[in-house]
Amino acid sequence: MTTKLMGQGVQRVEDQRFLRGQGRYVDDVAVGPATLHAAVLRSPHAHARIVDIDVDAVLDLEGVHAVWTHDDLTGPMAEPLPLLIPHPALTHGRTQYALAKDEVNYAGEAVAFVVAEDRYVAEDALDRIRVTYDVLPPVVGIDAARAADRLVHEDVPGNVGARMEQQTGDAQAAIAKAPHRLELDLTVERSACTPMEGRGTVARWDPDLNRMQVWTSTQSSTGVRAVVAVKLELDLGQVDVITPDVGGGFGVKINHPWPEELLVPLAARALGRTVKFTEDRREHFISSAHERGQVHHVEVGFDDDGRLLGLDVAFWHDHGAYTPYGLIVPIITSTQLLGPYKPEVYRVVFESVYTNTVMVTPYRGAGRPQGCFVMERTMDAIAEYLGKDRAEVRATNFIQPDEFPYDQGLIFQDGRELEYDSGDYPASLEKIKALVGWDEFPAFQKEMAAVGRRVGIGLACYVEGTGVGPYEGAHVHIETTGKVKVATGLTTQGQGHATVFAQLVADELGVRLEDVEVVTGDTRRMPYAVGTFASRAAVMSGSAIHLAARRAKEKVLKIAAEALEASEEDLEIVDGVVSVKGSPGSSLDLGTVSVLSNPLRYAFDEASKAATQFSVGDPGKPPVPEDEEPGLEGRDFYSPERATFASGMHAVIVETDPETAEITILKYAVVHDCGKLINPMIVEGQIHGGVAQGVAGALYERMAYDENGQLQNASFMDFLMPYVTEVPDGIDIDHLETPSPLNPLGIKGAGEAGVIPSAAVFAAAIEDAERLSIPGLAITAMPISPSELFHLRQSHPSQEHTA
Amino acid sequence: MSEELHDVRLSVNGASYDVRVPGRRLLSDALRHDLGLTGTHVGCEHGVCGACTVLLDGAPVRACLMFAVSAQGQEITTVEGLARPDGTLSNVQQAFVECHGLQCGFCTPGFLTTITAGLRANPTPTHEECREMVAGNLCRCTGYQNIVRAVERAAELGLDTPSLVPREGSSTNEETP
């Protein structure tokens, strides 16, 4: 029997290409002197009216082919970019223009576009454009937005783009009646995805085929295809979008179109040449999207055991200057902050506010890190108030294993009920406690305190809605060589899709892993797709591929049964050979079945010659019977009722330096439940990466805007992205598998989990480390740097005499 | 006004390339766009991320901090030159496969060149030295856990850096863009 590959840590098949320098990222496409290069002039001001743009000095620069401002755009290109996901609560949605019209609303907004022989010349040309601005006072940060003494958009009162409320009952009444009450104010700062490869787009217009071909580093090639068609007034069928290797996405590449994704194809058609735009690092910081910035106010009522009787959360979400991705991020915060818990009554209200800073779209975790921070800080505060063990208070509030499916009574980001499919939170808690040494820690803490060392432990739990719809599709084609070509429309950014999807096909079809080739993100191969985000690829495309392979297998068995004069039930496929069980002499390889599936009479090669000895089909009927198709293919789609819900718990032990307030990670532990594992090696890799990004968000990364809306740390020199020296040396991982009943494989998504509880777990551990020395010290804002911890100590009332 | 151009002979992975470039052309851009060796990636253009690391006479350098004209006369090794002459992966590359040391693969060329040079300087690193060896390169995907394991695994597999000397019998590739 072929060994089942599902669940095995199979080495990645795509690695060979990457390790040999043969990866194909967008900037590696169309290399050579025939390609023109684009550069974008970006606003130096956070808020200004454009009085005049003078491009006269540009055109006499040798090597410049085009310079455009908004005045050069016509038709749909001159209209604002689309608001991708409108929502009734988003009463004042605003999007930018491909090139700014009349005003700019963040430093970095695209103002003019140049195409030249190379990027160096294009940047020279940018220097010659003279823009006259009437500078306006900017709105920077949530406090300034809420104060509303200046407006980002004149026609948006109070800078409030949206206000949304959900509730399961009268939370205020429940809190008022509860035996105990607490209030907390909690803040999370902005950070950003910052993949190693920035954005990039290449386009080529083929006048002979009347087609536009676009390569772009995106998380949704079908989305880009649709918007290019609309904006350039082409039929969808005239546009191909190909997403080759992507050097990381983490959310920022799900937003589309970026101005350049439209301007590059437009230029390619206008100039009749291949045109390329490759974002540089500074551009990525100041013009690609950010996330995370939110301020929260929590009111909670609870009983003597710490059970949540009423929870009322209000928060303010900084969505920057525009809202191209709607309210996805704050809706996720507002719903997912409930985590594995079941408060008796919950109300949440948020306002999404405009600021003169870069727009906000999802970043790995997408609003969940903030929600988790809010809920877990609340749990810690309750435990502290009651003098109870923090794990025990959490356990008191868990949804129990026999309560699934569990309906939280809210509407989730996909417009469906927030109903958890499966899970076992008490089992996870036992595992994480064992893994980190929770029960033994107090003794260790005392021991360390005795020698003047401050160590602390933190625990945080989360639930992650993964595998959201609406659908993904797949196409499986068995070639006459016996090789299997698989296409799915969603894109890949390093998650190992070529391997895990091949594992699923190999299992279902009974072929060898190396005979399966997976293509993602090419609209020519699968034009119907949604995208790679929200930990949905394995669930959505994995399920679709499984179903498509099953369809192909059904056809294999039908044709082979006829050719071998056997019954379909008696056939099996092992290593690409179909045979009658128990009689190994009676067999056909898949390539031959593929030849038989297509009633051509051309003997191209030995395989097709060999196939002619089998007679398939009734000679009294047409060679391709009614309702049949030639070729050995399977195509199917998967569309779930609702999201799956992965879950997990993290724990960390930190040490804080009594003098310098330096924060050192001593141990990091993760318990993770993403349902059935396809490839544990890849899942662990996803956790490792997520934890590193979580550490980054908790301890290092922030977008340091000054009061003028200038980003002060727009380089890797100044933005503290972790090197190996900043991440834990070893992460202890344990898995739990509660299969999802929603899909045929029982899987849930795994991509974002690692990053969700980080701010919460570090806040808890740092607070725990400090409290033996400074009782009552509270960590309420993340990230926290050593200098911030130092000042927090200094400003604490108990420390006033030493300040 | 056209820019002054310079004729430069670049020796890369044992082959010679003649290019005509402006003085300001970065080595990273010359490798990628003039020579078509796109394995060397540009992640930041200010020398911080390490994705563009190539070996210059065996020593790791940031190709985005060098001009192409200043690389003349030195032997450059890029990621394309790391595999053995028979096409099989070098031990460092093989260790990355075994340890799942890459995800999106964008930073990988810079890690491979850095580690290749690092292990040549120190073939038997301690765990801490393995971490230090990669402490100048940024990766956004892996959390570095498996990259450090890959350094340890590569050390275990042994020193193997065939490409650091020009390959015998390799043909000279004269190219003028």
Counted beta strands of chain A: 29
Number of strands of chain B: 5
The chain pair forming the largest interface, with residue counts per chain, is:
A-B, 60 and 59 residues
* Percentage of β-strand residues of chain B: 15-25%
Shape of chain B: globular
Task: Give an overview in words.
With 803 residues, chain A is an alpha+beta fold. Chain A is 27% helix and 24% strand. In chain A, strands 3-5-1-12-9-10-11 form a seven-stranded mixed β-sheet, sandwiched between helices. In chain A, a hairpin with a 5-residue loop joins strand 19 and strand 20. The N and C termini of chain A lie far apart (73 Å). With 177 residues, chain B is of the alpha+beta class. Helix content of chain B is 29%, strand content 15%. Chain B has five helices and five strands. Chain B has helices spanning 27-34, 91-99, 108-121, 127-133, 145-157; strands at 5-12, 15-22, 53-56, 59-62, 75-77. In chain B, helix 2 crosses helix 5 (145-157) and helix 4 packs across helix 5 (145-157). Classes of the chains: A alpha+beta (803), B alpha+beta (177). At the A-B interface, helix 1 and helix 17 of A face helix 1, helix 2, helix 3 and helix 5 of B.
How is this structure best summarized?
The complex is a heterodimer of chains A (803) and B (177). With 803 residues, chain A is α+β, with helices and mostly antiparallel strands.
